[in-house]
Amino acid sequence: MTANIEVLNAGFHSIIQGNQRIGFKSFGVPESGPVDPFTSTLANLLLENKPFDPLLEITQGSLEFMSHGDTYIAISGADLNAVLCRGEDFKKISVGTSIELRDGDRVKFNGSNNGFRCWCAFSGGIKVPSVLSSTSTLETSNLGGIFGRRLLKGDVFEIINNTQPGNKILLPLLNLDNDRAVCLRVTRGSQYDEFSKDDIEVFFQNSYRVLSNSNRIGIRLSCSEKETRPIKGFNILSDPSPLGAVQITTDGSPIILLQDRGTVGGYPKIATVIKADLIKVAQLKPNQLITFKLISVEDAIKEYYNILSLLAKSIIEINTGFIKDYIELSKKYNLAHFSLCTENFNFLIKR
Question: pTM here?
Fold first, then answer.
């Protein structure tokens, strides 16, 4: 049985993302896909979907939709205070477990100060055509998703609805790092050696503030203090712009390039955020402070495989006996840091 989702309120920025668009950078088409390619897959895996089935990437919140037909959803990433509205009843939807939607149910994401993005997967994935081998939306080229754009009020999309989730929950093993100040680890960028030693030292000493005009193209930054001396970029012959590159504009504004960036650029890249820290980048919100820390390529690769290892351990299938034993242990030993799991366990018992 199929189901349809009607968008009642599109919110700040909600968009369909799926697999990356690989092999078209030479034509100026970036890979797109979820800003956090790790955490987003967990929402799909909770529903027995394929890791990169099309889902919703929800930024900041205020999205509201209605289900026409029965289906299941699961949320990963930041807790944007999603609420299930069934008739006159309202119930909070926990991050990290599957939940059934019935015909007429509404889901609203109220937003949060703790985190910036989440991903909402649907049973079997969202049914959208593949364009240039990808279902992901690229707004700058109007490719993928629904007419190549973000969701708008009144949009209706179809759910494939062919999976039946088990009793799986998400363990909070990945560090979303929602602290006020975030440290991003980087490797040397392609023009690192063209900056003076003094400029490099200043770059890593400074802290930066996330600007409100950031988007899926890039995170725009300014020095956190007005009296801080910014380092100035310079013009170069355009060269490839990798995912996570930190380019410095001629007026001294760093930009972290994301999934919908231009594939080449004429500003120097002083650093590249390691892939493992895209988890943190996806949750950066306006006015948040960040610093950069230089690490080796070898350590960046280790961190990447560490994230893959944590992903493999993040979802567990549980039964009623396991849940009851766990709750008793958590009460006995006051395992407060596992409160998220306990909340999900209680939900599964009631289900």
Answer: 0.89
